[in-house]
Design goal:
Helix content of chain A: 40-55%
Structural class of chain B: alpha/beta
Order of helices and strands of chain B: EHEHEHEHEH
Distance between the termini of chain B: 11 Å
CATH architecture of chain B: 3-Layer(aba) Sandwich
Structural class of chain A: alpha+beta
Number of strands of chain A: 16
CATH architecture of the largest domain in chain A: 2-Layer Sandwich
Largest sheet of chain B: 5 strands, parallel
Oligomer: heterodimer
Strand order of the largest sheet of chain B: 2-1-3-4-5
Distance between the termini of chain A: 109 Å
CATH superfamily of chain B: Response regulator
Number of domains of chain A: 5
Helix content of chain B: 40-55%
Shape of chain B: globular
Largest sheet of chain A: 7 strands, antiparallel
């Protein structure tokens, strides 16, 4: 009997020694092998390996020597499989201790045995801590509905050997799956009873033992069954060189896939005509597209890896540097929101500023902010057009009003006798000219208002305003117009002190002027216009009720539309612009108010019996 | 007799203002450009200034208004901006206009009323 292991007395495994002696005896000239083994022995002592691990490693070293040495060192060339079979002929493999048996088995049987070893270790630890019953429950939870459903458990552990004969009939994949469930159940149970840290320790001990006992490829199999929770945190601790290589390979494959998908995304982001860049959760730039670099005049290396604020300088609408906490990127990172800003400028590397429209969105992974994506567009042209439009309106309002205003004052002064006596006949003509000129002015004003509303440029400044004096002064102004047709104007205010309304006084004046002048224009001769001011806790309501022609039912839905004129109104006053009520509604809604009307529906038949003059009542409700 | 300075480049309107305000018993002087207006203010201190915005001659009404408001001797004089530009109401008030009237939208009665209010008569 070969005496290589005889020096160590404790932990003897005679059957294993028998196997080792047998395989060494197969080698015709063992001198080279013995040298290798002597070297191995020194290494094993220095790493203080367990006796079991020494046996396994020694066997595997011999097996490798026999199966791979060229020229062959044995009478016939062995493969690991044929060597195992040869060993099976001289010793019954089932009599070998479990740790050693594993290395002599193939396929699912090997996995079965390997995993069994781990489970035995784990269950023995749990039995010691919590007793047999607990382990029974955990094991049955782990194997339920699987090939191991009936596995017996007693104080010596889990007796897989009774189901052992089943193993070869199942695929390796299935064996792995069942043991993964089983180990997870045991780990979870341990964790529940003892806490995560202790459970992790136990699992670690088991897997480390495995690593010592088995070769790299076998130990790697254990990674397939280690509960995920253990893997997550401790994976690296268990890795040896081969496993690292495997993991690296896997990572590499994932990296290639990720790279492909990244290239696709990059191509996508490059192909859009807008600037795009992305940051990580700390705001460091991790991606930037070509358009961004071109627009900002930067190099990629200048941006990547640095906080975005180092290269992307943002100015607010007044040209001042925007504080970090107000920047959409910062807001997106902090609040997960998607923020769009149309008014800001970016500072180019040459110091010029560039108007941009930007949108910053948080990048969310499992609802956690992992970064921000910014897309922006050069708005130079849009802002230029905007500026030109505004300028046009300003100029037009000035240029058109100047001659009209000049005529207006001169006509008024003429009528008031500043230029001498005017005969009644002349006065009539001048009054007509004045009315026509006022109408022209109204048209110009309305058109300018509409173009401003279209651009969203009503620069309203709603302030608490006493509205009754404004209404009174307008009534005074339109009194002349009303007197001509003998129309009575009345104002009723619910109490002496009406509360203030939050409106823009100038626009409010236009609103009331418009509604009052309509109420007179479209009234009957000798009709009435009643203005009523009332209020509640939150709003003030102004109603203007006339006794005029009313609004035909078919026109009621369109009355606030732009350029729309009711049929009967157009007949009576052909020169209206159809813009007045559109403007009125826009203003009132701008203050958060409402406008509506009541005009009793009448039909042609009603019209015939004189019911047409029930009139219209406009209501506006504004916040107080 | 209240002294009024009108800074307005339209000769036609200068005439209208003069006629209108003289008839109310006011002492009216007229400047056709911003610079002339400032020169006139050096010579005399009016009780009220009526100021146009779109002026010819390199200096607009806002420039004139700013200069008036920076001058300790003149800054208390009420300045009524009278223009047809209705988009600049806010800037006018910000610089310190006592009132901002759109000419075409103001009747002569309203104009007189506002002038008198600021003069305290």
């Amino acid at each position: 009997m070969f005496s290589f292991f005889r020096r160590v007395k404790q932990e003897e495994y005679p059957e294993v020694e028998q196997v080792l002696s047998y395989v060494i005896s197969l080698v015709a000239q063992p001198q080279e092998l013995l040298e290798i083994l002597a070297e191995l022995k020194t290494k094993q002592q220095s790493t203080q390996m367990t006796r079991k691990a020494e046996y396994v490693q020694t066997y595997l070293t011999i097996e490798k020597f026999i199966c791979t040495h060229q020229p062959p060192v044995t009478s016939a060339q062995f493969t690991p499989k044929s060597l195992h079979e040869a060993i099976g002929k001289v010793i019954q493999i089932t009599t070998l201790p479990l740790f050693f048996r594993v290395v002599l088995l193939e396929g699912s049987l090997q996995l079965f045995t390997l995993y069994e070893d781990g489970v035995q270790n784990l269950t023995l630890q749990i039995i010691n801590k919590f007793g047999l019953e607990k382990v029974k429950i955990l094991v049955s939870a782990g194997v339920q509905g699987s090939i191991l459903d009936k596995v017996p458990v007693d104080e010596h552990g889990v007796h897989f050997n009774e189901l052992y004969h089943l193993a070869p009939t199942f695929s390796e994949k299935e064996v792995t799956k069942v043991f993964k469930n089983l180990l997870t159940a045991l780990y979870e149970g341990d964790k529940e009873l003892e806490g995560e840290k202790a459970a992790l320790e136990t699992a670690k001990t088991v897997f480390q033992a495995t690593q010592f006992v088995y070769d790299e490829d076998l130990a790697y199999q254990f990674f397939l069954v280690i509960p995920d929770q253990v893997l997550e945190k401790e994976k690296v601790n268990f890795l040896n060189r081969q496993q690292l290589l495997n993991v690296l390979q896997q990572l590499n494959a994932e990296k290639v896939m990720a790279e492909e998908s990244r290239q696709k995304n990059d191509a996508l982001l490059e192909s859009i005509g807008e600037g795009a860049f992305a940051t990580d959760q700390e705001g460091k730039v991790i991606f930037v597209n070509r358009v961004t670099l071109e627009i900002l005049g930067l190099q990629e290396f200048a941006m990547i890896g640095k906080h975005w604020s180092e290269t992307v300088k943002t100015l607010d609408e007044s040209g001042m540097p925007l504080p970090l906490e107000k920047n959409p990127i910062d807001i997106a990172l902090k609040t997960k929101a998607k923020v769009t800003e149309l008014r800001f400028c970016y500072l180019r590397s040459d110091g010029s500023s560039l108007p941009v429209a930007m949108t910053a969105s948080a990048i969310l992974t499992k609802d956690q902010v992992t970064g921000a994506m910014v897309v922006f567009r050069d708005m130079t042209r849009e802002r230029e057009i905007d500026r030109e439009k505004t300028e046009f309106i300003s100029i037009a309002s000035h240029q058109l009003r100047t001659p009209i205003g000049s005529i207006k004052w001169n006509l008024e002064m003429l009528l008031k006798g500043y230029y001498g006596t005017v005969t009644p006949e002349m006065s009539k003509v001048v009054e007509q000219m004045r009315a026509t000129n006022d109408h022209l002015l109204q048209l110009v004003n309305n058109l300018l208002d509409v173009s401003r509303i279209d651009q969203g440029r009503i620069k309203d400044q709603p302030v608490p305003t006493a509205i009754v004096p404004i209404i009174e002064s307008i009534i005074k102004e339109v009194q002349v117009q009303a007197d001509v047709r003998k129309i009575t104007l009345t104002l009723k205010v619910d109490a002496a002190e009406a509360p203030t309304a939050v409106i823009d006084p100038q626009r409010f004046r236009e609103v009331i002027e418009n509604l009052l002048s309509n109420a007179i224009k479209y009234n009957l001769d000798a009709g009435k216009v009643d203005v009523h001011v009332s209020w509640n806790e939150k709003t003030i309501q102004i109603s203007i009720k006339d006794t005029g022609m009313g609004i035909p039912q078919k026109d009621q839905a369109k009355i606030f539309g732009r350029f729309f004129r009711a049929e009967n109104a157009a007949k009576q006053e052909p020169n209206g612009s159809g813009l007045g009520l559109f403007v009125v509604k826009s203003y009132v809604e701008e203050w958060g108010g409402k406008i509506w009307f009541e005009s009793p529906v009448f039909t042609e038949k009603d019209g015939n019996d004189g019911e047409q003059s029930r009139g219209t009542c406009f209501y506006i409700e504004v916040p107080r | 007799m209240k002294k009024i300075l009108i800074i307005e480049d339209s000769v036609e309107l200068q005439e209208s203002y003069k006629k209108l305000l003289t008839a109310e018993g006011m002492d009216v002087s007229v400047a056709g450009t911003g610079q002339q207006g400032l020169d006139a203010l050096e010579a005399q201190k009016p009780d009220l200034i009526l100021l146009d915005i779109m002026l010819t001659g390199g200096m607009n009404g806002f420039d004139v208004l700013e200069r008036i408001k920076q001058n300790d001797r003149l800054k208390e004089i009420p300045v009524i901006v009278l223009t047809n530009l209705d988009t600049e109401r806010e800037s006018g008030k910000k610089i310190g206009a006592a009132d901002y009237l759109v000419k075409a939208n103001t009747s002569i009665d309203e104009l007189l009323k506002i002038v008198k209010e600021h003069l305290g008569v």
